């Protein structure tokens, strides 16, 4: 089954404790992306990757890091989480093309206290 | 100014009604346009891509107006199962990989 998986699905952590949210896709997609979704603000792109070892900043990259060492994986790293990073996070993947849809993972609900 | 703007709603309509949503975008160079559906606390799923010539899929019709820089979604004969939040997405034009999403329009279809 074609899918994007994220782990963990839910996470409660404390300020400053480094964490990683994993994302994996089995569709051989070149393009992957991370979004956060907050009430009233919609989905905002954090980082995206066009292929292995190629990443770029989205709209809200501050406080986040990513890496793309393998085509299927695109982890999101919060080196020192803060409460304003409490949000719902989605990973997405697609093939490069003007009309190619993005497939989203199920989401990770992160709470930073 | 936001890159993409939508009326947040909610739109409360009876079953069988026709409802339309608009989404305006600010970058005239945008090339890709999409409507996504998102159920509560779930991931967005593609509803339709939006083409210059407009496109229809069953009860759903999407249109693009480049001159006025908006896309629209028309839902005919609304079903209870259409209740969801509808998100529009637009790419950044110069960069196919950079996307902007609207904050979503909530639709409630009532019996």
What is the strand tally of chain B? Answer: 11
Helicity of chain A, in percent?
under 10%
Distance between the termini of chain A: 36 Å
**What is the β-strand count of chain A?**
11
Estimated radius of gyration of chain A: 13 Å
Number of helices of chain B: 0
Strand coverage percent of chain B? over 45%
Structural class, judged by helices and strands of chain A?
A: mainly beta
Reported for the largest beta sheet of chain B, the result is: 6 strands, mixed
N-C termini distance of chain B: 37 Å
Helix-strand pattern of chain B: EEEEEEEEEEE
Determine the structural class of chain B based on helices, strands and strand pairing. mainly beta
Q: Please, what is the oligomeric state?
A: heterodimer
- Specify the number of helices of chain A: 0
Largest interface: A-B, 26 and 26 residues
How can the largest sheet of chain A be summarized? 7 strands, mixed
Helix content of chain B: under 10%
Strand content of chain A: over 45%
Low-confidence stretches of chain A: none
Give me the Rg of chain B, rounded. Answer: 13 Å
Any descriptors?
heterodimer, A: mainly beta, 11 strands, globular, B: mainly beta, 5-stranded antiparallel β-sheet
Protein architecture, described:
The complex is a heterodimer of chains A (113) and B (111). Chain A has 113 residues and is an all-beta fold. Helices cover 0% and strands 50% of the residues of chain A. Chain A is built from no helices and eleven strands. The radius of gyration of chain A is 13 Å and the shape is globular. Chain B is mainly β and 111 residues long. In chain B, strands 2, 4, 5, 9, 10 and 11 form a six-stranded mixed beta sheet that branches. A five-stranded antiparallel beta sheet of chain B has the order 1-3-8-7-6, with no helix packed on it. Chain B is globular and about 45 Å long. The A-B interface holds A 31, 33, 35, 40-45, 48, 50, 56, 58-59, 88, 90, 96-99, 101-102, 104-107 and B 4, 6, 8, 31-32, 34, 41-46, 49, 51, 87, 89, 91, 96-104.
